Amino acid sequence: MISPRVQDAASRLPGVPAYLYDLPALDEHAAAVRRAMGATELYYAVKANPDPEVLRVLAAHVDGWEVSSQGEHAHVTSLFPGTPVALGGPGKTDAELRLPHHRIHVESPNELRRLVATGLPADVLLRLNPDLPVEGAALTMSGPFGMDEDGVAECLPLFTDRVRLRGLHTHLASGLDAGHLVGLAGALLDNDHEEVNLGGGMAVSYAVPESRFDWAAYGAGLAALRGGRRLRIEPGRALTAYCGYYVTEVVDVKRVRGQAYAVLLGGTHHLRTPVTKGHDQPCTVLPTGRGQALADEPITFVGQLCTPKDVFARNIVTTARVGDTVVFEMAGAYAWNISHHDFLMHPKPAFHYLGA
């Protein structure tokens, strides 16, 4: 359920569709995560949401930024010069290999050879793609990401006085609870490396928004495993998903072959998350309309795009009338920035910030 202050702000926006970010809520959440993680370093995966106002809030709580492109690197270093940056991502260009960084996550022996050939100094974490069972994950990062053990072994003789091996990086899956992540961490820390980056993957439930990842249990589990190692994590979605809202309006209601539909301004070209994840985006309908209504029945909420895939949520039992405001929750990560903005060339949403 969205907070009264978000409801009030959403009902008074000067125009929709729009994104609304609750910055005080983000600040409180990020501070709690920072406390729970103790000595474990906290980098934010900028790919989840690079909005400058969101990043400014997080900057007070994170140790650095994880970026995966030259564009993301330029973005964060212009906003926060001097803050440590870890450069990851497959398929790095020669220009990206030359970017200044605190750590670079090398994905293959060939990439390491190209890095050495730049003649520039670099501190490297080798991205390992280990053969470990991952149960209950929403997404597994297998296939071309990182290296197997043979690839890591091929890299070891390539290091020089300038290009230094600092440890391992891995990101196995997304959508895991604290217990699963601690268990995987235990297996991954069975090595001699003094620095290990465990990536992200903390569970975020769109079906049960009030169910949150247990940061305290994860922090305690990592503390017990750390020993003398330097540990780092890179959460993205689990830090910012809850602070964002996509606010829009019902423009039409109808029934087609017995199915009730509420057609909304905007669409999944603004909020790609439900289509990408294959779920119903949690939402609240605010009774701001006076038009034709669908009352207390299963309603499917769709957008304006010319595709049957433009669906926010299916068969939500509620009431919706033309002119009502619909507030989609958990739109603070992999939402606007992962969407196909220019399909049909609709107007882009506005952005508003509570507490700015």
Overview of the structural elements:
This protein has 356 residues and is an alpha/beta fold. The chain has eleven helices and 18 strands. Strands 1, 12, 13, 14, 15, 16, 17 and 18 form an eight-stranded mixed β-sheet that branches. It has an eight-stranded parallel barrel with strand order 2-3-4-5-6-8-10-11. A two-stranded antiparallel ribbon has the order 7-9. β12 and β13 form a beta hairpin. It is elongated. Residues 137-141 have low confidence and may be disordered.
Secondary structure elements and their pairing?
Layout: H1 4-11, E1 18-22, H2 23-37, E2 41-45, H3 52-58, E3 64-67, H4 70-79, E4 85-87, H5 94-97, E5 103-106, H6 109-117, E6 122-127, E7 139-140, H7 149-155, E8 163-169, E9 173-174, H8 178-188, E10 195-197, H9 215-226, E11 230-233, H10 237-240, E12 244-256, E13 259-264, H11 273-277, E14 283-286, E15 293-302, E16 311-321, E17 325-328, E18 350-354
Parallel strand pairs: 1-18, 2-3, 2-11, 3-4, 4-5, 5-6, 6-8, 8-10, 10-11, 13-15
Antiparallel strand pairs: 1-12, 7-9, 12-13, 12-17, 14-17, 15-16
Quick summary:
With 356 residues, the protein is of the alpha/beta class. 26% of the residues lie in helices and 28% in strands. It has helices spanning 4-11, 23-37, 52-58, 70-79, 94-97, 109-117, 149-155, 178-188, 215-226, 237-240, 273-277; strands at residues 18-22, 41-45, 64-67, 85-87, 103-106, 122-127, 139-140, 163-169, 173-174, 195-197, 230-233, 244-256, 259-264, 283-286, 293-302, 311-321, 325-328, 350-354.
